[in-house]
Amino acid sequence: MVIVGGGTAGWMSAAALVGIAKPGLCEVRLIESDEIGTVGVGEATLPQMRAFNDAVGIIEADMMRRTNATFKLGIEFVGWGFEGSSYLHPFGAYGTSLGGVEFHHQWLRAAQHGRAGGIEDYSFAVAAARRNRFDFPDEDPAILASTFDYAYHFDAALYAQYLRAFCERRGVQRIEGRIVDVALDPQRGDVASLRLASGEEVGGDFFIDCSGFRALLIGEALGSGWEDWSKWLPCDRALAVPSARLDEIPPYTRATAREAGWQWRIPLQHRTGNGHIFASAFTGEDRAADVLMQNLGGEALGEPRLIRFAAGRRTASWTRNCLAVGLASGFLEPLESTSIYLVQSAIMAFLRLLPGRDVDPALAAEFNRVMDVEYERIRDFLILHYHANRRSDGELWRHCREMDVPDSLQAKIAAFGHRGHVQHYKDGLFSPPSWLSVFLGQGLRPRHYHPMADNLPLDALFSELDGLRGRIASETAALPRHETTIEDYCFAVPTSGEL
Amino acid sequence: MTRRIEKVVIVGRDAAAWLVALGLQRAVGQTGVKVQVVELPSLLQPVDFYPALPSLAGLHALLGVPEAAMLKACRGVPTLGQRFVGWGGEGSSFVHAYDIQRPAIEQIDFLQYWVKARGQGLKIALEDFSLAAAAAKQGRLSDTPAGPDTLAGFQPGYHLDALRYVRFLRGGALAAGVEHRPATLDAIRREGDRITAIVLHDGTEIGADLFVDATGAEAALIGQMPGAEVTSWGEWLGCDRILAASAPVLRPLPAFGQVTALRNGWVGLYPLQDRTALIASYAADGTSDQDVLAEAAAAARVPVSGDVVVSSFEPGIRARPWVGNCVAVGAAAVGLEPLDAVQLQIVQIGLSNLVALWPVEADTMPEAPLYGAAMASHAANLRDFQIAHYRLNRRAGQPFWDRARDAGGPASLQAKLSLFGSCGQVPLYDDESFLAQNWSAVFVGHGLIPKSYNPAVDAVPPQEQMESFQKLLHVIAEEVRAMPTVETWLARRTG
User: Fold this and answer.
1) Which of A58, A299, B96, B376 has its CA 20 to 30 A from that of B217?
2) Chain B interface mutation, best of A17, A20, A22, A351, highest count of B Cβ atoms under 10 Å
């Protein structure tokens, strides 16, 4: 098994192969070049990451300590629905089903009587995040403090280094070098071997392409097509810059809408990651850099670095004996922190379908089906953030508001707007609470709630809501500060010479 | 101000009408919605019965149907699966059992180890590692809920006498407050794609905000609606005629149904407390009902007595099962043969989607396409499960079966067959009624054995793997031995 490219995707793939699969299953080699930088924008993650780390055998506190990690309860969206708005998309539920219907129907019903309060008042994760507090979720599902999940903010470059050490201890062979040629098997068309600048030939039975946007094997050598989604997701540039750490570290990512894009803020223990994602069709790079530098929460620690990209995905990210993982397989902007999740999802799907020496096309077909579902559902979710806006500044926002969106998304918006209906599905990211959060946060209000909500008497409903709101407020107020939990659990001792 | 639904009329008969009536009464009956059943004459005969998947118990719990009383009233018998006989050629058989959790070794599905061991000469069938299959074959079933030290965490399905089940449901629905009017239908009054009223034989007109078509294959309402034509699945499912009859009770009571291949279809034998129900499903073209009856009785090795009832059906789905203010449930929406106990499952899927999408406005119902999409998705998965039996048959030289094997199938099923044949994984889609365990039991039972297994299996030493197999067989034998017989199980519940 040959992995092309280090970075997060490459080392996560290697770690899964040696950590989850059994020893001796296959020899794993990874080729990377110190000359080639990694993109490394994926510094905010999703809760699924925890399961990945557990499966691979990574010890959470140790990993967090070495990657300057902090805890993450969700993402705050500032100014997205309209200027001045703010909502938090939490990793957790809003309330629980009441009277046989999902919670939000009862919330909508109470709102008609002016007795609901904000939906965020019913999320343990949001309440804790807004108070800058964090403790681990309770395991007893009957307890309120079990109704959320968490992820990490970390330094992706350090995470890749951490995984590299983990992998090398387990026998992964790292080959330093730049690939100059990809040889295909003349009969079968499979990837046969790679030639490095040093002249060395590296052969293998199966290749994992983690070469990033370049897509050295899957794109350049095998010609797997690219489906462009930039008509729906027009942002195509990012400027990234670190800044000094915040005085108080929040347990959430912040995404602030700007005139022609949006800005991220990812708080780490030792610094803050910042970036401005923008659409070059709607603003210039200089202007974008000004917007970024004027809106840093602390002193800039360097010059902004430009990254170019386009939204879209490989039509077949498993082709022949080559699997593309990470940016080689597709790109969706990090608005919902999905980059590392998509790496994980690809690796886990691959392990489920692990081929023998001969690769049956049925395996690739199933992998590509599953990844299609993943990418398309995330794509729709991202488009929703742009499409449902009432901002008055900037052409980007008018364009996104007026553009035609995919039918799959249009149907979801219509069903929610009519009756608060949120579809459940088996595969793919974003469960109903996530859709609910963004629908409501972006300013959509269902015209009706589910009629079955009326089975619960109004006074019983009001007292349930008041009680829940009060319990969430008092229980989250009693949690330890986020920084206290970090200091207790995974404090990264600052080393000299480190930013 | 929009107007809420004030009245729903369910036009129909039999289990579909009464399950939906009771379900809607429980869901919205207390919110000011009047639920009325206009009951058309039953199409059921005393010989008829309903096979039910384990999911029916969950629905009964939601609807407040008391299980013990229901089983007693309906002469019901629990079932742990179905035994398929002769589908792989004369003398072949396997059990599709209803357990849902196959054990894993080192987090990898047991099936993968079995595939490897089989390749190395293991002669033990996959079903021998299924607790439900082992219990079924011995006429026993679990009396205790699942626990950490037991495999026995599965819910049985049921075989129910149809007329008695309908009577029982009707009683429950009426007690819950459903209005009831026995009638025959004369006409439907329509404005555009909305029904304004139905006209009964005595001239009475009945209006409602929403009409539910639970008339079965007759599709008395939805069949009149624009754009609701049937998309046929006949190219993949060749049977179009059903015959029902009765045979004497079996002693001891088996804990499974038995489905035996015939020249032009199949015959199923399903134990009830006081008789055995017999159903044959076949292609009418090229055979007569009399021939089928004779062949079925011989194949099932039972004497058939009393009435024999035949009916025709067409496999397929309505392009739009909800048009205007008319929603079709059960066989009015989706026609499938009675294989794999799908009929009540289709009713249940329709009811649960109708409740989830209960219209919020009486005058416009944009829920219709959502309901249509959900029904199509669920039904396609059930259809594929049925087609798989035919597609994988190994009865050589019989035109009906040769055609079924060669008919191919929808792409969704082809993908399942290809992937499973390659590596033993089952791609599961949204809205599956059957889980990977069910699909793989049926695939392997019909002789589709994965070509390769997950290479990670090789990490477990052969000795350790063999010990795991032996331990599993031992645990299954122990647990089955401790289970009561079907008769004892029933006696403990029904007194």
Assistant:
1) B96
2) A22
Instruction: Flag if B357 and A448 touch (Cβ within 8 Å).
Output: no
The answer to whether A4 and A10 have CB atoms below 8 angstroms apart is yes
Q: Is A41 helix (H, G, I), strand (E, B) or coil?
A: coil
Residues B387 and B365 in one domain: no
The answer to whether residue A412 is catalytic is no
C-alpha dihedral (A4, A7, A12, A15), degrees to nearest 10 = 70
What's residue B388's pLDDT? 98
Q: Pick from B27, B452, B458: which is nearest to A452 by CB?
A: B27
Name the domain boundary from B328, B363, B380. Answer: B380
Distance in angstroms (rounded) separating the CA atoms of residues A324 and A328:
6
Shortest Cα distance, chain A CAs vs residue B382, angstroms? 17
Q: Which residue of B has its CA nearest to A417?
A: B366
Nearest residue of chain B to residue A100 (CA atoms): B27
Q: Are residues B195 and B70 in the same domain?
A: yes
Q: Is A348 on the interface with B (CB under 8 A)?
A: no
pTM for the model: 0.95
Note whether residue B413 is domain-resident.
yes
Instruction: Judge if B106 and B25 occupy the same domain.
Output: no
- The sheet with strand B185-191 has its strands ordered as B185-191, B194-200, B205-207
- Please indicate whether, in this complex, the C-beta atoms of B425 and A353 are within 8 angstroms of each other: yes
- Check whether residue B368 and residue B386 sit in a common domain: no
Spatial neighbors of B218 by CB under 8 A, at least 6 apart, are B332
Torsion sign over Cα A50, A53, A54, A60: negative
Q: What is the CA angle B341-B346-B350, rounded to 5?
A: 160
Q: Is residue B118 situated within a structural domain?
A: yes
Q: Do B399 and B475 sit in the same domain of this protein?
A: yes
Residue contact A355–B423, C-beta within 8 A: yes
**What separation in angstroms does the CA of A172 have from each of A351, A354, A400, B374?**
17, 18, 46, 47
B116 and B219 both lie in a single domain:
no
Distance from CA of B366 to the nearest CA of A (A): 8
What average pLDDT does range A339-355 have in this prediction?
94
A24 to chain B: nearest residue by CA?
Answer: B459
Is B491 a member of any domain? no
Model pLDDT for residues B183-214, shown as the tens digit of each residue: 999 999 999 999 999 999 999 999 999 999 99
Q: ipTM of the predicted structure?
A: 0.93
pLDDT tops 60 at residue B232: yes
What strands lie across the sheet with B334-335, from one edge to the other?
B230-232, B316-318, B334-335
Find chain B residues with C-beta within 8 A of A23's C-beta: 459
- Whole-number pLDDT of residue B102: 72
Q: How many angstroms separate the Cα of B286 from the Cα of each of B117, B155, B283, B298?
A: 44, 40, 7, 19
The pLDDT value given to residue A369? 96
Interface contact B355-A25, CB threshold 8 A: no
Per the CB < 8 Å rule, is A414 touching B366? yes
Instruction: Clarify whether residues B292 and B331 are in a common domain.
Output: no
* A372-401 tens-digit pLDDT: 999 999 999 999 999 999 999 889 999 999
The pLDDT value recorded for residue A497 is 45
Q: In chain A, which residue's Cα lies nearest the Cα of B367?
A: A415
Residue B135's domain spans which residues? 97-155+382-486
Q: Which of residues 450-479 of A touch B (CB under 8 A)?
A: 450-452, 454-455
CB atoms under 10 Å from CB of A296, counted, come to 17
Domain co-membership, B36 together with B183: yes
- The domain tally of chain B equals 3
Residues in chain B with CB shorter than 8 Å from the CB of A370 are: 427
B309 DSSP β-pair partners? B244
| C-alpha A319 chain-centroid distance | 25
B427 with A454: Cβ contact below 8 A:
no
Is residue B83 a part of any domain in this protein? no
Q: What's the confidence (pLDDT) of residue A85?
A: 94
The CATH number of the domain where B256 resides is what?
Answer: 3.30.70
